[in-house]
Write a structure and sequence with these properties.
This protein is an alpha+beta fold. One of its GO terms (biological process) is cellular response to calcium ion.
């Protein structure tokens, strides 16, 4: 899972009772720990910039701005260096940004011709700007986006080339093993039952738990099993960031006794087994009280092995396309689209719940689909001219070619359908799932992955057939997102989302979890800020896609294709006059 990290509350190191209630230690599972985003490095080059200097060429600088979610305000993120006397700069200074697949990160690149030492941009000549999203850069072929610079009417401002490179440290995992010697005896009748808890430090000085070893019973000289952890989780890719390790004696009632602690860093650990990686376990409380206190034992690193994992971005960079299909519920329970109470109400001033869910998810996914052509389907309606009920009809009215151009094209076809079809029923999901599965079954080589978004208002009528379809689809390169709109009870949907119990049909279990269900009402911003509601929804429903995508590729043993060769700027030959 990708997710924002939550700083853990700090604890007084010397308390013998350990952490209050021990929730963050005793109940901790590796899966629930949030890992910071992967980091990407953006490189910027320009070609044919405007020349604003009379006697020489421009001296360009690039300034990057980002936009907060649900907020129109642009904030400066950083600046490149100034390159003197060129219209074709290849800036050396990079921008390093956190990348989340499930978030739309709007970017603005402004270019200036620098005329003085002043940091105030209004004192320099504006050369134009380029708007895009981080997903657009990453999703372009070879993660290289080339776009025209705009912003000065009537002038050709040149082009900008932005390339994204995932930082190597973000995809490394380490396999480590530790042992300890002569730990303090904490149990009255036996020896201690020790375990280790690892924390990475955050920017604000707090610590976040990132790993807990198993408990080794009744010994003061434990050897713990080797464990694997991503470098992102261990230190957020910062090799010198403090890693705090605490040693506890396990107690059945959860009041684990604090034995002591030590600090290290990824850089120190990477030296492997050596005298540098034997750590004294210190209990600050004991140290303060006893003059002759030396330590509460030692912990030794036995092995340290770095493994590089392939990431979601490796596949995207290698050309894997994400195909997005939308299926919309046209059953009568949505209410008459002409009435303001209807979930399909066509309000000229704002999007209805269907429109919001569609835009929220679609606008992010479209960055990963090069042709921006999306099949848009409807189900549960009576179609003209004969009124037959269909559970798999093209919103654009063309069953041979149900593709719409961009999310705007899908929205247009959706509104057109509302005027021509009659809302009816029942609510059947299996036909649209099977529709996408047919396409997914024809490309299993890793070059394409399919995401189906189903937006529905209600209780499903064909549960058995839908389960069967999902179990079959779990073998294919596809994921299903179901967004429930309106006030209905969606209990049955939870069964399709295999997070708790893996979905099964007639004794066969799904090969992997491919369904994510959320009720839209959980994301509606109380203050009526629709942009915020949509960003929250997208963040939650898309967060699982990269892991579902990787699980398919892993099971099938599909490796990412090599990225196309990097862009090499043309060499500018300097003419020297004799």
């Amino acid at each position: 899972m990708f997710g924002q990290e939550k700083p853990a509350g700090q604890r007084e190191p010397g308390r013998s009772g350990g952490l209050p209630k021990m929730a963050s230690v005793g109940d901790f599972t590796v899966l629930s720990s949030s890992i910071p985003a992967t980091k990407v490095e953006l490189s910027v080059s320009c070609r044919n910039l405007l020349d604003r200097d009379t006697f020489s060429k421009s001296d360009p600088i690039c300034v990057l701005y980002t936009q907060a979610i649900g907020n129109k305000e642009w904030r400066e993120f950083g600046r490149t260096e100034v390159i003197d006397n060129t219209l074709n700069p290849d800036f050396v200074r990079k921008f390093i940004m956190d990348y989340f697949f499930e978030e739309r990160e709007n970017l603005r690149f402004d270019f200036y011709d620098v005329d003085s030492k002043s940091p105030n941009l209004s004192k320099h000549d504006f050369l134009g700007q380029m708007f895009c999203t981080l997903g657009e850069i990453v999703g372009s072929q070879g993660s290289r986006l080339e776009k025209s610079i705009v912003g000065i009417p009537g002038k050709k401002c040149g082009t900008v080339i932005v390339t994204a490179e995932e930082l190597g440290c973000c995809r490394d995992s380490v396999l480590m093993q530790f042992c300890a010697n002569k730990l303090d005896k904490k149990d009255f009748f036996g020896k201690s039952d020790p375990f280790l808890v690892f924390h990475r430090s955050n920017e604000d000085g707090s610590f976040t738990i990132c790993h807990k070893t198993e408990v080794v019973k009744n010994t003061l000289n434990p050897v713990w099993q080797a464990f694997k952890i991503s470098v992102r989780a261990l230190c957020n890719g910062d090799y010198d960031r403090t890693i705090k390790v605490e040693v506890y004696d396990w107690d059945r009632d959860g009041s684990h006794d604090f034995i002591g602690e030590f600090t290290t860093s990824y850089r120190e650990l990477s030296r492997g087994q050596s005298q540098f990686n034997v750590y004294e376990v210190i209990n600050p409380k004991k140290k303060g009280k006893k003059k002759k206190y030396v330590n509460s034992g030692t912990v030794t690193l036995l092995s340290f092995l770095i493994e590089t994992e392939v990431s979601f971005l490796d596949y995207i960079k290698g050309g894997t396309q994400i195909n997005f299909t939308v299926a919309i519920d046209f059953t009568a329970s949505n209410g008459n689209p002409l009435q303001p109470t209807s979930l399909h109400y066509m309000n000229p001033y704002q999007l209805n719940a269907y429109g919001m869910a569609l835009r929220a998810v679609g606008e992010i996914i479209q960055d990963y689909d090069s042709d921006k052509m999306f099949p848009a389907l409807g189900f549960g309606a009576r179609l003209p001219p004969d009124g037959r009920v269909s559970h798999e009809f093209a919103l654009n009215g063309n069953p041979q070619n149900p593709y719409c151009h961009g999310i705007d094209g899908v929205m247009e076809a959706y509104y057109r359908s509302l005027k021509s079809v009659q809302l009816y029923g029942p609510t059947n999901f299996a036909p649209v799932i099977n529709h996408v599965a047919r396409y997914a079954a024809s490309v299993k080589d890793g070059s394409q992955y399919f995401v189906l978004l189903i937006i529905t208002d209600g209780v499903i009528s064909d549960m058995a057939q839908t389960k069967e379809s999902i179990v079959n689809a779990s073998k294919l390169p596809m994921s299903i997102i179901i967004v429930g709109v309106g006030p209905a009870e969606f209990d049955a949907m939870e069964e399709l989302d295999g997070d708790v119990v893996r979905i099964s049909s007639r004794g066969r279990f799904a090969e992997r979890d491919i369904v994510q269900f959320v009720p839209f009402r959980d994301y509606v911003d109380r203050s009526g800020n629709h942009v915020l509601s949509m960003a929250r929804l997208a963040k939650d429903v898309l967060a699982e896609i990269p892991e579902q995508f990787l699980s398919y590729m892993r099971v099938r043993g599909i490796k990412p294709l090599p990225a196309p060769p990097p862009y090499t700027p043309p060499v500018h030959v300097l003419q020297t006059q004799i």
